[in-house]
Amino acid sequence: xxxxxxxxxxxxxxxVLWSGLVPEAGAVGAHxxxxxxxxxxxGTEFEVTAGGQFLQGVQQVVVSGGGVSxxxxxxxKPLNQKQxxxxxxxxxxxxxxxxAEAAGxxxxxxxxxxxxxxxxxxxxxxxxxxxxxxxxxxxxxxDPKRQPNAQIAETVTLRVSIxxxxxxxxxxxxxxxxxxxxxxxxxxxxxxxxxxEADVQAGAVAPPSTLSVPVSLNGQILPGDVDRFRFHARxxxxxxxxxxxxxxxxxxxxxxxxWFQAVVTLYDAKGNEIAYADxxxxxxxxxxxxxIPETGDYEVEIHDAIYRGREDFVYRIALLETSGGRLxxxxxxxxxxxxxxxxxxPNDGEAQAEPIRLPHxxxxxxxQVGDVDRFRFxxxxxxxxxxxxxxxxxxxxxxxxxIRLVDEQGTTVGWNDDSMEKDGHLHLGAGLLTHxxxxxxxxxxxxxxxxxxxxxxxxxxGGPAYEYRLRVTPPEPDFALxxxxxxxxxxxxxxxxxxxxxxxxxxxxxDIQLALVDAPPGFRLxxxxxxxxxxxxxxxxxxxxxxPAEPVALRLEGRARVLGREIRRRAVPADDxxxxxxxxxxxxxxxxxxxxxxxxxxxxxxxxASEEPIRIAAGTTADIRFxxxxxxxxxxxxxxxxxxxxxxxxxxxxxxDGELVLPVSAAESGPAPxxxxxxxxxxxxxxxxxxxxxxxxxxLGVLPAIPVQIAAAGSS
Amino acid sequence: xxxxxxxxxxxxLKVGLAGTAGLALAGPRGARAxxxxxxxxxVIQIWMWGGPAHLDTFDPKPEAGSDYCxxxxxxxxxxxxxxxxxxxxxxxxxxxxxxxxxxxxxHGVNAxxxxxxxxxxxxxxxxxxxxxxxxxxxxxKGYDCGYQxxxxxxxxxxxxxxxxxxxxxxxxxxxxxxxxxxxxxxPFAVEGVVAQGISAKRQAARRSxxxxxxxxxxxxxxxxxxxxxAASEAKAxxxxxxxxxxxxxxxxxxxxxxxxxxxxxxxxxxxxxxxxVEHGVPYVTINYRxxxxxxxxxxxxxxxxxxxxxxMAALLEDLDTIGLxxxxxxxxxxxxxxxxxxxxxxxxxxxxxxxxxxxxxxxxGGGFRGGRVVGASDSRGEEVAExxxxxxxxxxxxxxxxxxxxxxxxxxxxxxxxxxxxxxDGGGRLHELV
Lengths: 716, 434
Hints:
The complex is a heterodimer. Chain A is mainly beta. Chain A is 5% helix and 44% strand. Chain B has helices at 9-20, 66-69, 90-93, 112-121, 133-141, 200-213, 215-219, 224-241, 243-247, 255-261, 265-278, 297-321, 391-402; strands at 42-48, 76-77, 84-85, 99-105, 154-157, 177-178, 283-288, 328-333, 337-338, 354-355, 359-364, 373-374, 376-377, 384-386. Chain B is globular. The interface between A and B is medium-sized, with 24 and 22 residues.
């Protein structure tokens, strides 16, 4: 049965583009994989190289936080295949000629068909290269053992100026091209004098000059590379080597392990190892602190733990004199927050369990090796309780928490070691942490009685730093949101799809209403109701019809009613990043940045739509109507549902009396009745003419999200 | 006209029977009793090392759109009504009546090592490392059970897996003999058998020199260790200088035949595998590298699928022509499939990742029916839609065809009380194919 319904709701402007098209497959935006150096000293001006892909037409650099201005100097794409072939032939002949000369033989005659070297920045001065230079180039470009890394093959040279009063710390840097806004990368504003590695070639070659402490050291580790820096230090001086590598580029998708695992070693002038560091606490970036034994020259060495390397193995080392104290990133004793009780010792024996009444919050510590903290409470059969430890997440505590709930007989009712929130291979909300050491237990009590919450370190460790916060409470339903990607580019009036990820807490199961907060006029969110129980939901953002002067940092908020009160949570902007071919992480970003491009020949079209979902009964088809305007070409477009649930399909789209009719069908075997979904419809155009070009179709962008709800078969 | 294998069907049957009786390249003790009546005598395992994309080989999904099938969106019909395969496999399309496709393979593991273990042993990892199918066949159809060929019963062309211990707790005796070398080169330098640049004549001269220099052995006649050593040495030289060494000489096949299989490592490995089963070797694995296509996936497919098509199609056709397909199982599989949705973003730029939730395998010969499709994936190849098949089901079915009781005891040097495959693991035989 064809089930048509005319939609009678207020419409809104939709723009379908006729230019600025992108091919359907491979429609990806600007991407940057590294910045080198990944920071600089305030009050200075210097050059930075950004390596990435799809950076054609880079025109602007956006740095968060203020005080950093950047101009684009040059964009270089890698040699194309024709240029590579010509270069290979030319340089091979050049090498044969130089080898003959070196051996005192007669150089071979120049072939008549020898191609000239392409005019390309990589080949500047190549005609004068010696054998070593030719070999260096060969290894970089033609070595078959080097994997193709198109994702960082393009480079953009930037001129960076940091104001003298710029606030030190980490910033986000993004490149804005004609067609996209790149992902953010960490750019560090520092206060120390800067040094770049003298030689990025493999081999432990220290720069000839001796550096003075403090200094900031910058380099890139290539395959097998070992970098060394020489500095002078006095006897008794305490030096600190603080490496930033994984913190600069948290995850590498195509490397195992999934980041640059830096190790540092300190040597004296005779080559004796003085100190070594691999990790620091549970952070992969090493921090080394040692006392200098004798006045003299020393060398700090850095390499990857298993001698991998690539241009995006970028490091930045702060080499400082220190007077002791807490190491950066280490546990810091914290003041007990309001509402948290202090731990009452002794509470480690079964008979010594501290009596508590729910809800209870406590700040406590695993004092020594083998310590177990116990908290006793009375509970009723069927009562739900939540016990949750915050240690690594809030306190940088080294504790690997383990929670066990036991009854009066000592029988374990429930336990938890690590609490991971995942959607398939995607870790929600953990960011840099890959060991989910904090424990969480949500359970129902089996009978009336006395129960004990036992908290211990899973590895049996303990000490002053093993501090934690514990809550033992009835469920406190709540949620957290992430929105991806953190960078968006869309021409004025155009629509983009964004993903909102939901973390449920303590059994939260309500609809979440999304809204833009304090957004400039013209930005619009569609499909903004996340159905209860969905941990990932697609919505769309439509840009205003006029282009703002600068990229706009938007704020997205989720609102829900829980136990009679409204709670509001900010959607943290994040990027879906992959670690080592498999695991993915939502890496939080500072800004949800939207760059709006100039409008490009849009055809206005209006859709009748509603915040209420359109009902489609299982086994039927609903006609969704758009007011298409007068452009007759709209009828020639192709339309497709993007990642629709199985059983939902789009039929042949037709143009009827100025209205575009999208027939959406729900199979009887499709989504269960009650399912709510946002349908995302993408428009395509095929180029005119036949032949090979007809194989491709070109994306014109998506329409605003269409909320639908599946109804039971036979319902109206 | 295509060249024919030199062996006729009649000759092949003779050799096959001889192989069954352990006569192929037999030593002086001759034949032993034939094992249980079973349709299959040999296995050629084409191991798609790294995990081949099911959507781009035997389970195309053009209707899923370009985000799923990329440029390979024109699957072709085969000589079996209703079965379509990749557009880059036209030769295999003409052989589809000889093989069956399992489109509902699943184990859910996306890590190479674990997935390889599961697919090749039919078991999940646990406290004990179990042997892979090749080692089990080597144990139950090899030297312990009447096979007396000089060529080891479990051959790998050309590199060993390395992802896990193929023999598991059975021990090194049942590990495969990995040939090394490259069958596409002349000569095929088989590890320890055929040395690059050394002729048979020179090899014989070396042996003579070695015997002349063996003054210690000659001075202690009748010493058991020296006799054993001499026997081993004689056996090794028989392998190198005798018929076994010639078996690896693919030049005997002639240029035209070699071209049929494709002048590349995989094509010539298929030809070599055919020669090995012709001579009674019970288990041959072709470790076909290069399918872990995270990047440049479609470019790699354009290069590798035609090679696979040519070599595998020629193998099936020739085995059928000489009458050995009925007794030779050809098993095509990797450790998993690849993600149906193409990863267009950086750093993949059109790649596919690991995918163990749903993938394809192919079985031919050895009594398995051809021209069938077992199970189905969903419209995007992301989920098993019908008839989930676990790797253990495939191995169980192959063992049965080989006359190996899947639930029989698996003798082992550690004295463990284990069965060939665990009973009641929820799996079963592929009844559709037998």
